Amino acid sequence: MASRIQLGKVVKAGGKSFRIGRSTRKGKKYKACPTSGKGSCIHFGATGFTAKPGTSKGDNYCARSSGIKADRISPNTFARMLWNCQGKKSMKK
Predict the structure, then answer these.
(1) DSSP class of residue 64?
(2) How many other C-beta atoms lie within 10 A of the C-beta of residue 48?
(3) pTM of the entire structure?
(4) Which helix (H) or strand (E) holds 78?
(5) Any bridge partners for residue 21, and if so which?
């Protein structure tokens, strides 16, 4: 099943809308830029790595990343969307 994160798609995080694009930063696969034009882009996802939501690999990632707390929108926010994390589990969607 397709992830919530796809190139060209608009997603909501923290009450703001972000457009997903291909990252220009070395070692990163995606970037999320605010559609309002205010603020900077957030780069996330490792180049050469494929997210497989709903697998044991996804469950391991979601369990590890659930402990990361941030008061702002961070790369972890978008990476968890990429893996379709619901708590400590990765869902097929």
Answers:
(1) H
(2) 7
(3) 0.89
(4) helix 75-82
(5) 31
